[in-house]
Write a sequence for this structure.
């Protein structure tokens, strides 16, 4: 009977010792992760359009990866993005410009950071947000370009009509070809349809 009691005491004592060792191990792991977390630099931004940026997407400074996106959540009219810089030696300059960009054939999204300009430093923000450039912006630019080209063609045609009576040309085949081509270009420019904007 006494032997059985002694074995039970030893087993209880062994269980307590193993429990203490396990607690110490868990405490050490917890302290290590806490210190590592404290050493990482975390930044939070609010951006109007993340354009496919997800948790785990790379954060690059001038093309060099310095961190990753750790959290992204849609709020009322903006997206809250939290990113971590895992390069301990890297210091993010004040007023840095952030923008969502894609790289490669697959279009991998990343949060790109660029050095601040003199205008960015005036804002007193740690991170300045640059609007994401989408396909609709390209269509707007093309529409603007074609309308400006048509305007230039019209003004040139008007100028030539005003100047023609004062200039004496020899009636040659080259002159006739030139005026015919000029009128054809002007006619084609006026027929260009306005590019519809995508929304």
């Amino acid at each position: 009977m006494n032997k059985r009691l002694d074995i039970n005491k030893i087993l209880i004592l062994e269980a307590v010792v193993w429990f203490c060792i396990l607690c110490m191990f868990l405490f050490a792991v917890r302290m290590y992760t806490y210190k590592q977390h404290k050493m990482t630099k975390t930044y939070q931004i609010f951006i109007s359009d993340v354009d496919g940026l997800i948790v785990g997407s790379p954060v690059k400074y001038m093309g060099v990866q310095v961190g990753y996106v750790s959290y992204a959540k849609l709020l009322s009219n903006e997206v809250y993005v939290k990113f971590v810089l895992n390069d301990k030696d890297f210091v993010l300059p004040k007023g840095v410009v952030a923008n969502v960009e894609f790289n490669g054939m697959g279009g991998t999204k990343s949060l790109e950071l660029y050095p601040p300009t003199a205008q960015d430093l005036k804002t007193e923000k740690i991170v300045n947000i640059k609007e994401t450039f989408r396909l609709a912006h390209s269509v707007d630019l093309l529409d603007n370009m074609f309308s400006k080209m048509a305007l230039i063609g019209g003004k040139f045609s008007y100028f030539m009509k005003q100047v023609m009576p004062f200039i004496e040309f020899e009636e040659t085949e080259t002159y006739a070809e030139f005026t015919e081509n000029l009128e054809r270009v002007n006619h084609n420019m006026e027929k260009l349809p306005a590019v519809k904007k995508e929304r």
